[in-house]
Amino acid sequence: MQVKDFYKTLEDLGRMVEERQFSQARTLLLDENPVDIAELFEEMPENTLVLLFRLMPKETASEVFSHLDSDVQQRIVEGVTDKELATILDELFFDDTVDFIEEMPANLVKRVLKNTDPTTRRLINQVLKYPEDSAGSLMTLEFMELKKDETVAQAIVDIRRNSLEKETIETCFVTSATRVLEGTVTLQNILTSRDDTTIQEIVDKDIFSVGTTEDQSVVADLFKKYELLSMPVVDSENRLVGVITIDDVLDVIEEENSEDIYIMGAVTPSEDSYLKSSVFELAKHRILWLLVLMISASITGFIIRRFDEVLSSMVLLAAYIPMLMDTGGNAGSQSATMIIRGLALGEIKTRDAFKIIRKEFAISLLVGSVLAMVNLGKLLLLDRVSLMVAVTICISLFCTVIVAKICGGLLPILAEKCKVDPAIMASPLITTIVDAVSLTIYFVLATAILHIGG
Amino acid sequence: MQVKDFYKTLEDLGRMVEERQFSQARTLLLDENPVDIAELFEEMPENTLVLLFRLMPKETASEVFSHLDSDVQQRIVEGVTDKELATILDELFFDDTVDFIEEMPANLVKRVLKNTDPTTRRLINQVLKYPEDSAGSLMTLEFMELKKDETVAQAIVDIRRNSLEKETIETCFVTSATRVLEGTVTLQNILTSRDDTTIQEIVDKDIFSVGTTEDQSVVADLFKKYELLSMPVVDSENRLVGVITIDDVLDVIEEENSEDIYIMGAVTPSEDSYLKSSVFELAKHRILWLLVLMISASITGFIIRRFDEVLSSMVLLAAYIPMLMDTGGNAGSQSATMIIRGLALGEIKTRDAFKIIRKEFAISLLVGSVLAMVNLGKLLLLDRVSLMVAVTICISLFCTVIVAKICGGLLPILAEKCKVDPAIMASPLITTIVDAVSLTIYFVLATAILHIGG
Asked: Collapsing DSSP states into helix, strand and coil, what is residue B70?
C-alpha cells in the first residue's frame, strides 16, 4: 500500500464511521491485507478502532489482531465483550497468543486466560514460564506430530484430518510412544513412499534440536548456518514439546541485528520501537554511554594540558587536532565495523586474530600513505604552513591510521575472546582510544621535529 | 561442532589422507553435517580437498558443494572429471547451480554448461540474464505448479509423483492453461478438501507476486512485512516463471543488514567476506570515505585558525576541544543510529519528521543537562579551572548536544526523502558536521563570556 493510499484510506474510514456508513467501511477495510489493516488501526482513535475491529469477520479479526502492537491490542481487549474476546483467542495461533499475553498488564492477563479453554490455558501458563528470549518462548505448539510405528497410509489420514490447525506440515516430527523425539520426516518423503511403509523406516534421525531454555540467538545461528526451516524443541528428557519455525527466527535475526547496530551507535539496546518509547526511556538508554565516553575523553584533555607548552609556542598545531582525531577515529571504526560484522555472521573466528593484524597492518600502510600524501599537498599548497609543520602533521596522521586500524581490528576479537559483545568495540570506544594515542604521537613528534616546548 | 572438534577432525582427516586410510576418512567425514563438511573443506589444501570430495556419495557431495565458497567450488570443478561434474550438477538444486555459475570464471562456466542437460542449460542461460540483485536471480524453478482446472485428487497424484524434486510443497502455485498466475493453494487446503473439488474453487487469489527485475531488497521487505514463506515471480505478462523461498530471503536480509552496518561504519559495502578479500580491495573500500571525511574535517581546522587569537590568549581552551567534539559526535550518532534502524525496519516513516524533532529536542535537554552538570563538577573539583571557563565549556557542551541530537534525528529522514541511503548519515558524517558547529559555539561563547580574543 502506498503512503498516499494509506492516508486516503485512513481518512475515508474515519469519515464513514462518523457518518455511520458501517457496511461501506467494512467493505473498504476488508479489501486490504490484514497486515495493512493492522497498520491502519495503529493510527486510529480508540472508538473508531474498536468499532471497526468488531465489524470484521472473526478469522480476519484474529489475524489482524496478531499483527497489532501490544498497546493497540490492549485497547481492543478493553473494548470488546468476553464472548468476542473468546472468539478472537480461539482463532489465534498459539504462539501469537503467548506473544500477546506476555505484553499485557496483569489484570488483562487474568481476563484473557479466563476466556480461553482449559487445555489452552494450561499450555499458556506452561509456556509463559520459559525465560523471555529462550527457545521455549519462541516455539509453536501447532506442529504435525507422527508416531514412529504409524504407516504412511495412517500418517496421511492423520495429516488430512489435522493439518488445517498446524503452522507447517512440510516437516513432520516423529516421536516414540513416550513422546521422545526420534527425528523428522518431510511431507515430500511421506507422499512419495508406499502406503505400508512405517514412518520409522523413513525417519531422518540426523537432525538438530534445542532445549527449551536455549538462548534465541543460538537458535537463530543454527537456522542460519544449517539453512533450517523448522527445528524441534525438547525438554530435559528429550521429549518433544514444541517447534520453532523460520518466520519467528526472522524476527529474532532482525532483533539481533538491531541490538548490534544500537550498541555500535553507543545506544543501550531496547526492544521497544523509537516512536513508542518515551523521551525519558530514550534518554535513559543514551546517557550512560555518553557519560562514560565523556569522562574517558578527559584523557585526551589531560594529554593536551600536559603538552600545553608545545601548544602555546605554536597555537597553529591546535588547528589540526580535529582532523587527526576524526581521521583516526574513522579509520579505526572502519576496521572495527568489518570485524564485528564478520564475527556476527560467523565469517571471522577468534582464531583469525593473527591474519587480521597482518591484513589491517598492510591496509593501514596503504591507506595511511595516501591520506598523508593528500594531506601534505593540502597543507603546503592551501594552508601554506612550513614544511616541517606539514611533515609533523603527516607523519602523525600516518602513525595514527596504523594504530587505529590495528586497534579496530583487534579489540572486537579480544572482546569476543572475553565473552563480551564485540559490538561494544565499535566507533565510540575506538575513537576515544585512538584520540589519546594520536594526540600523544602528534605532540611527541612536534617536540622532536619542531624543537619546541618540552 | 565445537572449535576444538573442528581442528581435531581437520587434522585427523589430513593424516588419514596422508596415510592413505581412505575408508576411515570417508566414515569420519560422512559423520558430519554437509554444512560442517563444507567448512572443513574451506580449510584444506587443494589435493586433500579434491580427493576427499570424490570419496563422498553423490547426494552428499552435491549438498556439500552448494555450501562451499566459490573459490573452493572452482578448485573442485578444476579437479574432477567431466562425468563427475555432470553428476554433481544433476543433483544440485537449480538456484544453487545458478548461484555457483554466477561466480565462476568464463572458461569454467563453459565447461559447466557443457555438462548439464539441454533443458537445464537453456533455463540457466535465461536466469543468468536477470540483473544480479533482482527477484529473477533469487528465484528457484523447482516449485509445485498446479493447473486451475485440476481436481484435488489429480493434484495429489501430481504432488506425490513430483514432490521430491521440489524445494517446497507447502504452497502450490496455480496457473491457467497459458501459465498465467492465478493464485496459490496450500497443501493443507488440498489435503483437507474433497477429492472432486477443483483447484480453482480453493485457490487464494489475494497474494503477492513480483516481477523478475524487482530489486531483492523490495522482495525482502515484502517477506518481512507480510510474514511470507514463499512468493511467485512473474514476467511482464503475469506468467509464472519462478518462486522465491524464505531461506533465500534470509540471506538477502543479512546482506542488507551488512550493507547498512558497513555504510554506518564508513566502509563502502561489498559482498565478499573480510578474510577472502585482498588487502588492496579492502583498502579501496575504505580510502574514499576516509579522504572525504578528512577533507571535510579541515573545516574544523579552519574554524580553529579563525579563532587563534582566542586560543593564544587561553591555550587551556584547547584541552576541552576533544571532549566537546567527541561528546557531540556520540550524541548525534546515537540519534542517527536509532532513526536509521527505525527507517530500515519500517517502524519510522519520513512523515514522522516532526515527531522526531520534538522528541530529540526533549531528549537533548535532558541528556545535555546531565552531561553539563557532571562536567561542571569535574571541571571545578578535579581540573580546578575558573568558574567562568567552566561555565563556558558546559554551556558549549549543552548547546552541542542539542544541535547534535537534532541533526542526528533529522539528517537520516532528509536522506530518505531525497532517496539517498539514510545509513550514510551515520556517525562519521554527523561527527564532521557537529564538530564544526560545536567549535563555533565554543569559541563564540569564549569570546563573549571570557572577553578574550576577537
From this structure: helix
Tens of pLDDT, residue by residue over B101-146, are: 888 888 888 888 888 888 888 888 888 888 888 998 888 888 999 9
Scored b (16 or more CB within 10 A) or e, B392-425 reads bbbbbbbbbbbbbbbbbbbbbbebbeeeebbbbb
CB contact under 8 A, A431 and B246: no
Question: Given phi > 0 = left and psi -120 to 50 = alpha, else beta, which region is B63?
Answer: alpha
Strand order in the sheet with B143-147: B143-147, B168-175, B181-186
- Tell me if chain B has a CB within 8 Å of the CB of A381: no
Q: What angle do CA B336, B341, B344 make, to 5 degrees?
A: 125
The span from the CA of B235 to the CA of B213, in Å, is 9
Indicate the burial class of B70 (C-beta count within 10 angstroms; 0-12, 13-18, 19 or more).
middle
A21 contacts chain B (CB < 8 A): no
Identify the structural domains of chain A with CATH numbers, from first to last: 3-129 (1.25.60.10), 138-252 (3.10.580.10), 297-450 (1.10.357.20)
Chain A contact present for B164, CB below 8 A: yes
Is residue B127 a contact partner of residue B137, using CB atoms and an 8 Å limit?
A: yes
Q: How far apart are CA B285 and CA B171, in angstroms?
A: 42
Q: How far apart are CA B353 and CA A92, in angstroms?
A: 35
Mutate to test the interface with B, among A326, A354, A397 (most CBs of B within 10 A): A326
What is the value of ipTM here, to two decimals? 0.81
| Contact (Cβ atoms closer than 8 angstroms) between residue B73 and residue B65 | yes
Q: What is the pLDDT of residues A368-414, one digit of tens each?
A: 999 999 999 999 998 888 999 999 999 999 999 999 999 999 999 99
What is the predicted pLDDT for the residue at A392?
93
Partner residue opposite A226 with nearest CB, options B33, B359, B362: B33
All three cell numbers of B320, joined, read 576541552
Q: Nearest CA to A333 among A211, A427, A222?
A: A427
> What is the SS3 assignment for chain A?
CCHHHHHHHHHHHHHHHHCCCHHHHHHHHHCCCHHHHHHHHHCCCHHHHHHHHHHCCHHHHHHHHHHCCHHHHHHHHHHCCHHHHHHHHHHCCHHHHHHHHHHCCHHHHHHHHHCCCHHHHHHHHHHHCCCCCEHHHHCECCEEEEECCCEHHHHHHHHHHHHHHCCEEEEEEEECCCCEEEEEEEHHHHHCCCCCCEHHHHCECCCCCEECCCEHHHHHHHHHHHCCCEEEEECCCCEEEEEEEHHHHHHHHHHHHHHHHHHHCCCCCCCCCCCCCCHHHHHHHHHHHHHHHHHHCHHHHHHHHHCHHHHHHCHHHHHHHHHHHHHHHHHHHHHHHHHHHHHHCCCCCHHHHHHHHHHHHHHHHHHHHHHHHHHHHHHHHHHCCCHHHHHHHHHHHHHHHHHHHHHHHHHHHHHHHCCCCHHHHCHHHHHHHHHHHHHHHHHHHHHHHHCCCC
Q: State whether residue B287 sits within 8 Å of chain A by CB.
A: yes
The residue in chain B having the minimum alpha-carbon distance to the alpha carbon of residue A305 is B319
Partner-chain residue, chosen from A170, A253, A428, that has the shortest CB–CB distance to B253: A253
Residue whose C-alpha is closest to residue B257's, from A219, A277, A431, A255: A255
Task: Give the max Cα distance, chain B.
Answer: 95
Confidence at B172, pLDDT banded by 50, 70, 90: very high
Q: Which residues of chain A have pLDDT under 50?
A: 454
